Amino acid sequence: MSLKPNSLEELWMPFTANKHFKQEPRLFVEAKGVYLKNHRGEQLIDGCSGLYCIPGGHGRKEIADAVAKQIMELDFSPPFQFGHPLQFEVARRVAAMAPGDLDYVFFANSGSEAVDSAMKIALQYHRAKGQPQRVRFVCREKAYHGVNFGGTSLSGLVKNRETFGPLLAGISHMRHTRPPEHKFVMGQAETGADLADDLQRQVDLYGADTIAAVFIEPIAGSVGILPPPKGYLQRIREICDRHGILMVFDEVITGFGRLGENFAADAFGVIPDLMTLAKAITNGVVPMGAVVAREHVYKAISDAGPAKGIEFFHGYTWSGNPVACAASLAALDIYEKEGLFERAKKMIPYFLEQIASLKEFGIVTDTRGIGLLGAVDFEPVDGKPGVRGYEILQDLFNNGLLARITYDTLILAPQFICEQTHIDEMFDKTRSAIKRSMNRPQLRAVS
Ligand SMILES: Cc1ncc(COP(=O)(O)O)c(C=O)c1O
C-alpha cells in the first residue's frame, strides 16, 4: 500500500494510547498468509490471527474474489422485510456446523452487536413464554462481552465499566474461573467446578424466575485466556435447566475451530441455548456477527408473534449484508476444504507445550492455555500494572511479532494455517522479548 498519511492527528483510535501512539506509531501496510508488514517495511509474524479473527491466513484470494463478485452482482439488499439468497445459505451452513438444535441464525455486524442481540432475544423469549418478569442477567467477573451498553454491563472488567455510569440494571456477576491455586495449570483445571454454584447463589438471592439468561465465554478470552475448570460448564448447564434460565455461550473468539472443533460447545460437550459469533465467521475480512438460537428459542418467539406481523423488533442495516455473506461463505469453504480445524487440532499440543515452557522466566507469574489460545502473565514493574506489558508490545512490534497484550498479559492465538516453524518463530521472538524486558533496568513509564 503506497498511501502515507499526512497527519496522524485526526484519527481517534479505539482501545489505544492515542497520544503515545502518535509519537511512536505502529502501522500495518500489508498482510499475506502468516505475515504482516509494518510502515517501515519490516515483516511481523501474526501471533494473534489479527485479533483472533483470521485463522485462514491473510490475503485469501478466494474471499477477495467472492467479495468483488458480490459487490458487482448485489452490493446491498435491504434487510428488513426483504431477503437475498446468500444470507439463507450462510445461516444454513452455520446451523449445520453448530451442535444440537442450534439451528436459527440472526445476523449482526460485530461481537458486541451479537451480544446485545442475544440479550434482547432472551428477554423476548421469556415474554413469549409468559414470564416477562425474567429480566435479570447473570455473567462473570473478568468477562468481555463487547462494548455496547448491553455487553459493557455484562462485562467484568473494571476499566471497561467504571467510566460509563450505572449501565444496565439487573445484572450481577459470578466469580471468574482462575483462582490463585490454578497458577500454571494448562488446559482445564481438575478443581473449581463448584465455582458454577455461584449461579445457584444468584438464583437463591434473586429468585430463579427473575433471571433471563446467563452469559458465559466458554473460555474467557480478552482478559487473558481463562479455561473453565473440568465440569464447570456442565454444572452451569444443569443449574440453567433446573431453573428455566437460558444459557448463552459467547463464542466470538472460540467459534470456528479455535479449540480444534467447530465451536467450544462441541469441544466441551455442552450445548447452550444461544451462541454469539463474529470474528472468524468471515475470516475477519468483512465485519459480521451472529446469534445462533436453539429451536425452542426461535419457535417460542415466532409462534408468539402475529401471523403476518414482525415478531422481533430488532436488527441492523447491515444484518446479513450480501458482501459479508459472500466473505463468510468463502471463508467457511476454506475452513472445510483445507481441513483447517483439524490442522489446528494437531498443532494444539505443541503450541501449549511452548506456552507452558515460558514458566522458566523469573518474570512469568502464570501460564494458561487451551486450544490455540495461550497466555502468559508477567510480573508488573514497581506495582504499576500495564507498564511492562506496553513495553513488550512495542518491543515485539519492533522485533517482528504481533501478539495481543492486555495489561501485563501476553496472548498468542496463531492462525490455523501455521506450520510448526511459524510457532517456533513466534516463541523465539517471545522469549527474546521476555529476556530484553528482564534486562531492561528501568522500564519507561507510560502512564
Ligand atoms: C467474547 C467476546 N464477545 C464479544 C466481543 C466483541 O466483539 P466486537 O469487537 O466484534 O464487537 C469480543 C471481542 O473480542 C469477545 O472476545
Topology at a glance:
Elements: H1 18-23, E1 28-32, E2 35-38, E3 43-46, H2 49-52, H3 61-73, H4 85-97, E4 102-108, H5 111-128, E5 136-140, H6 149-154, H7 158-161, E6 171-174, H8 197-206, E7 211-216, H9 232-243, E8 246-250, H10 264-268, E9 274-277, E10 289-294, H11 295-304, H12 322-337, H13 340-357, E11 364-370, E12 373-378, H14 387-398, E13 401-402, E14 404-406, E15 409-412, H15 420-439
Parallel strand pairs: 3-13, 5-6, 5-7, 7-8, 8-9
Antiparallel strand pairs: 1-2, 2-3, 4-10, 9-10, 11-12, 12-15, 14-15
Helix pairs in contact: 3-12, 4-12, 5-11, 8-9, 13-15, 14-15
At the first level of CATH, the class of the largest domain is: Alpha Beta
Could you report the average pLDDT, rounded to the nearest whole number? 96
- Stretches where pLDDT is under 50 for at least 5 consecutive residues are none
CATH level-two architecture of the largest domain: 3-Layer(aba) Sandwich
The secondary structure category is: alpha/beta
CATH topology assignment of the largest domain: Aspartate Aminotransferase, domain 2
- The name of the CATH superfamily of the largest domain reads Type I PLP-dependent aspartate aminotransferase-like (Major domain)
Q: Bin the strand percentage.
A: 15-25%
* Biggest sheet: strand arrangement: 4-10-9-8-7-5-6
Distance between the termini: 33 Å
Q: Based on DSSP secondary structure assignment, what is the total number of beta strands?
A: 15
Q: H/E order of the elements?
A: HEEEHHHEHEHHEHEHEHEEHHHEEHEEEH
Instruction: Specify the biggest β-sheet.
Output: 7 strands, mixed
Q: How many distinct folded domains?
A: 2
The general outline is globular
Report helical residue fraction: 25-40%
Q: With helices defined by DSSP (H or I, 4 residues minimum), what is the helix count?
A: 15
Bound molecules: pyridoxal-5'-phosphate
- How many whole angstroms does the radius of gyration measure? 22 Å
